[in-house]
Specification:
Radius of gyration: 19 Å
Oligomer: single chain
Mean pLDDT: 86
Shape: elongated
Helix content: over 70%
Largest sheet: none
CATH architecture of the largest domain: Orthogonal Bundle
Distance between the termini: 69 Å
Low-confidence stretches: none
CATH class of the largest domain: Mainly Alpha
Order of helices and strands: HHHHHHHHH
CATH topology of the largest domain: Tetracycline Repressor, domain 2
Strand content: under 5%
Structural class: mainly alpha
C-alpha cells in the first residue's frame, strides 16, 4: 500500500511537471488527475491544494536542476576563469532546458501561478549557486559588491537566454560564447583587484 502511494504521488508530480512544460495547459486538478491516471480525490490524499502541489513541483525540479548544474559551477572556475564559469553555466542551463522543458519558464515571463513560482525558484537557485561559487572562489571581495555585480550578471544572462537562437546550433553556440565572454569579463573586471 505504501509503495503504491509513493508511486501515485510521484506520478502526480511528474504529470503536473509535464503540464507545466506545455505552455497551453493550465494546472488544474481534474486534467491533472486524468493525466496522472488517478482520481482528483487521490491528489488530495497527497496535496492539500495547488499551492502544496506547486511546492512539490518546485522541490523536484530544483533538485534536478542542482544535479545538472552543480558539477559545472566550481569555486575554482569562478576565481580563475569567470568567462569559463558563465559559459559552463549557460551550457548547463541549455542542457537542462533540453532535458526538462518545464525549466524553459526560467527565461520566459510568467503570469502568476505554478510556472511563475517555478521560474522564481529556479532563478533563486541559480543565483544562490553562482553567489556561493564566487563567495568561495573570491572570499577577499566585498560581499555586498559581489552580490550587486552577480545580480547584474544574472539579469544579463536571463535576458540573453530569452534570445538564444533555438534551432541553429552554430549560431546558438556562438551566441552563448559571446554572452559568456561579455558577462564573464564584466564580473572579472568588476570583482578583480582594483587599482589602488
Amino acid at each position: 500500500m505504501r509503495r503504491n502511494g509513493v508511486a501515485t504521488k510521484g506520478r502526480i508530480i511528474e504529470a503536473a511537471i509535464a503540464m507545466i512544460a506545455e505552455d497551453g495547459e493550465a494546472l488544474a486538478m481534474r486534467p491533472l488527475a486524468r493525466r496522472a491516471g488517478c482520481s482528483p480525490a487521490a491528489i488530495y490524499q497527497f496535496f492539500a491544494d495547488l499551492d502544496d502541489l506547486g511546492a512539490a513541483i518546485v522541490e523536484q525540479v530544483t533538485q534536478d536542476a542542482v544535479a545538472e548544474l552543480a558539477p559545472r559551477l566550481s569555486p575554482d572556475l569562478a576565481r580563475e576563469n569567470p568567462v569559463g564559469f558563465f559559459a559552463a553555466l549557460m551550457e548547463g542551463v541549455v542542457a537542462l532546458q533540453a532535458a526538462r522543458p518545464e525549466t524553459l519558464c526560467l527565461v520566459r515571463p510568467q503570469p502568476d501561478g505554478p510556472r511563475a513560482a517555478l521560474a522564481g525558484a529556479l532563478r533563486e537557485m541559480i543565483r544562490g549557486m553562482v553567489s556561493d561559487a564566487f563567495a568561495q572562489g573570491c572570499p577577499e571581495t566585498d560581499a555586498g559588491r559581489r552580490e550587486e555585480v552577480l545580480t547584474i550578471a544574472q539579469h544579463a544572462l536571463i535576458g540573453a537566454m530569452a534570445g538564444v537562437p533555438p534551432r541553429d546550433a552554430a549560431n546558438r553556440a556562438r551566441y552563448l560564447a559571446d554572452v559568456s565572454d561579455l558577462v564573464g569579463n564584466f564580473v572579472a573586471r568588476t570583482l578583480g583587484p582594483q587599482p589602488g
